[in-house]
Amino acid sequence: MRDLASTLLSWDRFAVASVVAVRGSAPRPVGAAMAVGPSGEVIGSVSGGCVEAEVYDLARTVLETSVSTLATFGYSDDTAFAVGLTCGGSLDVLVQRDSSSLRAALQASLDGHPVSVRFSAEGRTFTESWMPPPRLLVFGAIDHAAAVAEIGRFLGYHVTVCDARPIFATPERFPAAHEVVVDWPHRYLASTHTDAQTAVVVLTHDPKFDIPVLTEALSRPLAFVGALGSRRTHLERLDRLRAEGVPSAALARLRSPIGLDLGGRSPAETAVSIAAELVAVRHGGTGLPLSSLSSPIHRTQESHGTDLSQRRRHAGWTVARPAPGHADGVPGTQCGQVPVLLGAGEVPRDARVGVGTGGG
Question: Boundaries of each XdhC- CoxI domain copy (predicted)?
Answer without folding.
Answer: 13-74
